[in-house]
Design goal:
It is built from 5 helices and no strands. By secondary structure, it is mostly helical.
Length: about 160
Protein backbone atom coordinates (compact mmCIF):
# COMPACT_ATOMS: atom_id res chain seq x y z
CA UNK A 1 0.00 0.00 0.00
CA UNK A 2 1.25 3.51 -0.67
CA UNK A 3 2.90 5.36 2.19
CA UNK A 4 3.43 9.09 2.65
CA UNK A 5 7.08 8.26 3.35
CA UNK A 6 8.42 4.93 2.09
CA UNK A 7 9.64 2.86 5.01
CA UNK A 8 7.73 4.89 7.62
CA UNK A 9 5.49 3.10 10.10
CA UNK A 10 1.81 3.51 9.32
CA UNK A 11 -0.46 3.98 12.38
CA UNK A 12 -2.58 0.90 13.16
CA UNK A 13 -5.86 2.85 12.99
CA UNK A 14 -5.26 3.74 9.32
CA UNK A 15 -6.19 0.59 7.43
CA UNK A 16 -6.02 1.97 3.88
CA UNK A 17 -9.81 2.00 3.52
CA UNK A 18 -10.21 5.79 3.42
CA UNK A 19 -9.87 7.71 0.16
CA UNK A 20 -6.33 9.01 -0.14
CA UNK A 21 -5.09 7.15 2.96
CA UNK A 22 -1.30 7.02 2.74
CA UNK A 23 -0.70 6.53 6.46
CA UNK A 24 -0.20 10.18 7.48
CA UNK A 25 -1.30 10.79 11.08
CA UNK A 26 1.87 11.69 13.03
CA UNK A 27 -0.07 12.94 16.09
CA UNK A 28 -2.52 9.97 16.13
CA UNK A 29 -5.48 12.35 16.04
CA UNK A 30 -7.60 9.71 14.34
CA UNK A 31 -6.82 6.91 16.80
CA UNK A 32 -10.33 7.20 18.26
CA UNK A 33 -12.76 5.81 15.63
CA UNK A 34 -15.50 8.41 16.26
CA UNK A 35 -12.99 11.25 15.95
CA UNK A 36 -11.63 9.75 12.72
CA UNK A 37 -15.17 9.57 11.28
CA UNK A 38 -15.68 13.27 12.08
CA UNK A 39 -12.29 14.23 10.61
CA UNK A 40 -13.20 12.44 7.38
CA UNK A 41 -16.45 14.44 7.18
CA UNK A 42 -14.64 17.68 7.97
CA UNK A 43 -12.09 17.03 5.24
CA UNK A 44 -14.88 16.40 2.72
CA UNK A 45 -16.43 19.77 3.59
CA UNK A 46 -13.05 21.54 3.38
CA UNK A 47 -12.40 20.03 -0.04
CA UNK A 48 -15.83 21.03 -1.30
CA UNK A 49 -15.37 24.61 -0.10
CA UNK A 50 -11.94 24.72 -1.77
CA UNK A 51 -13.46 23.54 -5.06
CA UNK A 52 -16.23 26.13 -4.79
CA UNK A 53 -13.59 28.78 -4.06
CA UNK A 54 -11.62 27.91 -7.19
CA UNK A 55 -14.78 28.19 -9.28
CA UNK A 56 -15.60 31.48 -7.52
CA UNK A 57 -12.20 32.86 -8.52
CA UNK A 58 -11.90 31.51 -12.07
CA UNK A 59 -15.42 31.98 -13.47
CA UNK A 60 -15.70 35.73 -12.73
CA UNK A 61 -12.18 36.29 -14.11
CA UNK A 62 -12.96 34.45 -17.35
CA UNK A 63 -16.32 36.20 -17.75
CA UNK A 64 -14.66 39.57 -17.14
CA UNK A 65 -11.96 38.83 -19.73
CA UNK A 66 -14.69 38.04 -22.31
CA UNK A 67 -16.58 41.23 -21.42
CA UNK A 68 -19.61 39.40 -20.03
CA UNK A 69 -19.04 40.61 -16.48
CA UNK A 70 -17.31 43.59 -14.91
CA UNK A 71 -15.91 42.61 -11.54
CA UNK A 72 -12.55 43.26 -9.87
CA UNK A 73 -9.82 40.65 -9.58
CA UNK A 74 -10.46 38.20 -6.74
CA UNK A 75 -7.68 39.65 -4.61
CA UNK A 76 -9.23 43.13 -4.83
CA UNK A 77 -12.86 42.05 -4.39
CA UNK A 78 -12.86 42.37 -0.58
CA UNK A 79 -11.62 45.95 -0.70
CA UNK A 80 -14.15 46.92 -3.38
CA UNK A 81 -16.98 45.23 -1.49
CA UNK A 82 -15.98 46.96 1.74
CA UNK A 83 -15.92 50.36 0.05
CA UNK A 84 -19.08 49.95 -2.06
CA UNK A 85 -21.07 47.24 -0.28
CA UNK A 86 -24.50 47.44 1.27
CA UNK A 87 -23.20 46.35 4.69
CA UNK A 88 -20.04 46.73 6.72
CA UNK A 89 -17.49 43.95 7.05
CA UNK A 90 -18.57 43.29 10.65
CA UNK A 91 -22.21 42.94 9.63
CA UNK A 92 -21.34 40.51 6.85
CA UNK A 93 -19.10 38.56 9.23
CA UNK A 94 -21.90 38.19 11.77
CA UNK A 95 -24.36 37.08 9.08
CA UNK A 96 -21.86 34.52 7.78
CA UNK A 97 -21.10 33.21 11.27
CA UNK A 98 -24.80 32.81 12.00
CA UNK A 99 -25.62 31.05 8.70
CA UNK A 100 -22.54 28.81 8.73
CA UNK A 101 -23.16 27.96 12.38
CA UNK A 102 -26.69 26.94 11.50
CA UNK A 103 -25.53 24.84 8.53
CA UNK A 104 -22.77 23.20 10.59
CA UNK A 105 -25.20 22.37 13.39
CA UNK A 106 -27.49 20.67 10.83
CA UNK A 107 -24.49 18.76 9.47
CA UNK A 108 -23.45 17.70 12.99
CA UNK A 109 -27.00 16.50 13.74
CA UNK A 110 -27.02 14.49 10.53
CA UNK A 111 -23.56 13.09 11.34
CA UNK A 112 -24.78 11.88 14.72
CA UNK A 113 -28.04 10.48 13.32
CA UNK A 114 -27.91 9.98 9.51
CA UNK A 115 -31.06 10.96 7.56
CA UNK A 116 -32.47 12.71 10.67
CA UNK A 117 -32.50 16.00 8.77
CA UNK A 118 -34.92 14.46 6.29
CA UNK A 119 -37.61 13.96 8.92
CA UNK A 120 -40.74 16.11 8.54
CA UNK A 121 -40.35 19.53 10.10
CA UNK A 122 -36.55 19.58 10.10
CA UNK A 123 -36.09 21.97 7.17
CA UNK A 124 -39.10 24.10 6.14
CA UNK A 125 -40.59 21.62 3.66
CA UNK A 126 -37.41 20.57 1.83
CA UNK A 127 -36.85 17.43 3.90
CA UNK A 128 -37.53 14.91 1.12
CA UNK A 129 -34.89 16.44 -1.15
CA UNK A 130 -32.31 16.76 1.60
CA UNK A 131 -32.67 13.49 3.52
CA UNK A 132 -29.54 12.03 1.94
CA UNK A 133 -28.48 8.46 1.36
CA UNK A 134 -27.75 7.48 4.96
CA UNK A 135 -24.01 7.56 4.29
CA UNK A 136 -22.41 10.57 5.93
CA UNK A 137 -20.73 12.96 3.53
CA UNK A 138 -22.38 11.54 0.41
CA UNK A 139 -25.89 12.97 0.39
CA UNK A 140 -26.87 11.97 -3.14
CA UNK A 141 -30.16 13.36 -4.44
CA UNK A 142 -29.92 16.99 -5.54
CA UNK A 143 -26.25 16.96 -4.46
CA UNK A 144 -25.37 14.24 -7.01
CA UNK A 145 -26.78 15.60 -10.28
CA UNK A 146 -24.46 13.41 -12.41
CA UNK A 147 -25.46 10.24 -10.53
CA UNK A 148 -21.83 9.35 -9.76
CA UNK A 149 -22.78 7.68 -6.47
CA UNK A 150 -24.87 5.14 -8.36
CA UNK A 151 -21.80 3.67 -10.10
CA UNK A 152 -20.52 0.20 -9.28
CA UNK A 153 -18.67 -0.04 -5.94
CA UNK A 154 -15.28 -0.37 -7.69
CA UNK A 155 -15.88 2.71 -9.88
CA UNK A 156 -17.27 4.63 -6.88
CA UNK A 157 -14.15 3.83 -4.80
CA UNK A 158 -11.94 4.91 -7.71
CA UNK A 159 -13.85 8.21 -7.99
CA UNK A 160 -13.41 8.81 -4.25
CA UNK A 161 -9.66 8.31 -4.54
CA UNK A 162 -9.24 10.85 -7.36
Amino acid sequence: RPSWCPGADIPAHLKGTLPGDCGWDPLNLGAEPEALRWYVQSELVHCRFAMAGVVGVLVPQVLTKFGLLDVPEWYEAGKVADENGFASFNTLLMIELFLMGWAESKRWMDFRNPTSQGEPGSFIGFEAALKGTGENGYPGGVFDPLGLSKASPAVYKDLQDK
